[in-house]
Amino acid sequence: MDKDSTHKYNCNFCEYETSRVYCLRIHMMDHTGERPFECDLCPATFKQKSKLTVHKRIHTGEKRFKCHLCPYSANGNDNLKTHLLSHTDEKPFKCHLCPYSANQSGSLKKHLLTHTGEKPFKCHVCPYSANQSGSLKTHLLTHNGEKPFKCHLCPYSASGSGNLKTHLLTHCGEKRFNSEKRFNSEKLFKCHLCPYSANRNYQLERHLLTQTGEKPFKCHLCPYSCIESGDLKRHLLTHTGKKPFMSSVSLLS
Fold first, then answer.
1. What residues contact residue 214 under an 8 Å CB cut-off, 6+ apart?
2. What CATH number did the domain enclosing 96 receive?
3. How many structural domains is the chain composed of?
4. Alpha-carbon distance 8 to 11, whole Å?
5. Same structural domain, 54 and 99
């Protein structure tokens, strides 16, 4: 019995090993692509029947797993376990390149894209690309003119929640980005190519373009290209001859 309990079953295709033959069978499906359990309501397929059972609760709306600390409920035990980390502040998924940590593996995967510079989510209207689908969705609002984030104190509206938060500071009079806070603020986003660091993700993304030489914003009238969309907008004015920034001297003359 002891001999059987210590026996290891090895995968012929990779270094995976397990003490249970059932686990090896499930693992082999990763190599063969086999997913025998199919949902009869959508194209989803699974390696295990238990995963299919949990998936079907998405269609029925059933959420059997309840959080004992808040009203949250989930259709699977794994989702509930992940949620419970938000109450404990535990962040077991840590980045090996910077101090960033997360309570979900998916969040860590998204963060790692900031180090590699990869931006898989492309805009179909302009050269913009992003490392998160949410950032692309927010960007697309700039093309259709939609501004769903509305100020409750004035008629102002914005296409992104970040712009609305910045606007709200004008009502409370808070000067968030003063020099003292800039000096004392921790800069968690670090460049893996040079000593540069930033306290905001978008600042690191912009900096990485200076390292790679990539200039995604291209002029459609000449060979000019640049790193930031604002620079391209200013450049386009050289083609139109428009001068929106008139000096006070010219206005008085």
1. 117, 227
2. 3.30.160.60
3. 4
4. 10
5. no
Residue-wise pLDDT for 184-241, tens only, equals 445 667 777 777 887 776 777 777 777 777 777 788 888 888 877 778 878 888 887 7
Token readout for 251 is 């206005």
Distance of CA 179 to the CA centre of its chain: 29
Assess whether 139 and 158 both reside in one domain. Answer: no
d(CA 76, CA 46): 15
Instruction: Indicate if 68 and 105 belong to the same structural domain.
Output: no
CB 157 within 8 A of CB 150: yes
Model confidence over 109-168: pLDDT tens digits?
888 887 887 888 888 888 888 877 777 877 887 787 778 888 888 888 887 777 787 777
In this structure, are residues 56 and 49 in contact, taking their beta carbons and an 8 Å threshold?
no
Q: Per-residue DSSP letters for 130-183?
A: ESSHHHHHHHHHHHHT---EE-SSSS-EESSHHHHHHHHHHHHT--TT-HHHHH
Amino acid residing at 92: P
Is residue 62 assigned to a domain?
A: yes
Q: 73 with 41, same domain?
A: yes
Burial of residue 2 (CB within 10 Å: 0-12, 13-18, 19+) is: exposed
- Could you give the C-alpha distances from 166 to 30, 46, 156, 186, in angstroms and in order? 46, 44, 12, 20
Taking only the tens place, the pLDDT of each residue in 22-76 is: 889 888 888 888 888 998 888 888 888 888 888 887 788 888 888 888 888 888 8
State which residues form the domain around 223.
189-240
pLDDT value for 244: 53
